[in-house]
Amino acid sequence: MIESIENALQIIVLLICSGIALYRAIANHSQTWVLAFLFFGSWLLGDIYWLVCLLFYGQTPQISIVSDLSWYGSYIFLYLLLYHSSAPDKDSRKHRLPWLGPVFAAGMAVFFITQGELLSNLIYASLMGLLLFAALSRKIDRKRYQNQQFLSGMILLFCLLEYGLWTASCFWKTDTLSNPYYWFDFLLTVSFVFFLPAIKKAVTE
Predict the structure, then answer these.
(1) Total-model pTM
(2) Which residues contact 19 (CB under 8 A, 6 or more apart)?
């Protein structure tokens, strides 16, 4: 019951965020806001499928690949959004700090593979590693990427919240508010709202 309510709340938030992004994309003729709309929209489609399964079948989807494909797309659009708003510096690979992102993603993947599917966890690890690397690359060079600091920070928070709820789902199975999974998911829902001002600040076109 709690999961259905939280999913419905997230869908409402994503509908609003998608609408705002689409409006700004049309009004400003902005490719960045088009990517933002696709980011929110892809996540929204995955959530809708998940909620339909909960409401009509009383359980989480047996074929989770439908939602997974939507969320894969959402990660890709988020990366493209950051790339479009600020192309990476050629010297970013020389810094060591950004590589902690892919290393962390790989380490978590090893753990999650023991708990679930091999292929999906490898895909998530690859996409998360890419996002973490891109965000950290911009964080270490605040002067060059001043307008992208808020967006980079939101991406880092977004990734950590995802890892938080994934990890919680491995240890807690109860459908009560004592389950930290729901708290991480609620914070993830709130983070979508803060992406709007972060993207607005990052837009340079």
Answers:
(1) 0.91
(2) none
For residue 146, what pLDDT is reported? 82
Q: Which CATH number fits domain 2-202: 2.60.40, 3.30.390, 1.20.1070, 1.10.730?
A: 1.20.1070
Domain boundaries, the chain: 2-202
